[in-house]
Design a protein that fits this description.
The chain is an alpha/beta fold and about 180 residues long. The chain contains six helices and nine strands.
Length: about 180
């Protein structure tokens, strides 16, 4: 075990923040990765599934080698969001979302990819992310949601043979796994 090289160089006092204070269970030799708090097997399954889409694979690779730690907290209350202030993604590995086009559901893995895309946008262009997040766009809430849904998410949905969303609104349901709508 060793201290977090990125946080320590930045003057922090927490030796193990890079593994969410648990260096026995979580391991990140570079100090630059995605930390998952909660349901790690579901994250691994969602990552493997989403990685079949080239755009999503690129985002996963970029975030995994970033100098910034993105933390994913799993939950069971259909809360899926990205908080740029803390670089934290909240994700429910059993929450599915109803898609407008095709009148069907998006898997939890695709919804995780959606939130990872927000993290990618923020880390690569904070000003652009902030500008898009504050620009209202009907049906999508804001321009960042529109870019994420119409771009990376729907491109991944095509490859993964999932539904395409035409808005950021809708209802949620439950699935048995992160890669299924059943």
């Amino acid at each position: 075990m060793s201290e977090d090289p990125l946080l320590w160089n930045g003057g922090g006092s927490n030796f193990y923040s890079y593994v969410a204070n648990n260096p026995v269970i979580r391991y990140d030799p570079s100090g630059r990765n995605i930390a998952v708090i909660g349901d790690i097997p579901s994250y691994a399954g969602a990552r493997a599934y989403s990685g079949a889409a080239p755009g999503m694979a690129l985002i996963l690779q970029s975030l995994s080698t970033s100098n910034s730690l993105v933390q994913i907290n799993t939950n069971n209350d259909c809360r899926n969001n990205f908080d740029p202030a803390t670089l934290t993604i909240n994700w429910d590995p059993t929450c599915i979302a109803y898609c407008d086009k095709g009148h069907c559901w998006a898997t939890p893995a695709l919804l995780l990819g959606h939130e990872l895309t927000h993290a990618f946008h923020y880390l690569n262009d904070k000003h652009g992310y902030d500008s898009r997040a504050s620009t209202v766009v009907p049906d999508y809430d804001n321009a960042e949601e529109q870019l994420t849904i119409a771009g990376t998410e729907n491109n991944a949905a095509i490859v993964l043979r999932e539904c395409l969303r035409l808005s950021h609104h809708g209802r949620h349901g439950r699935s048995l796994s992160p890669t299924s709508i059943d």
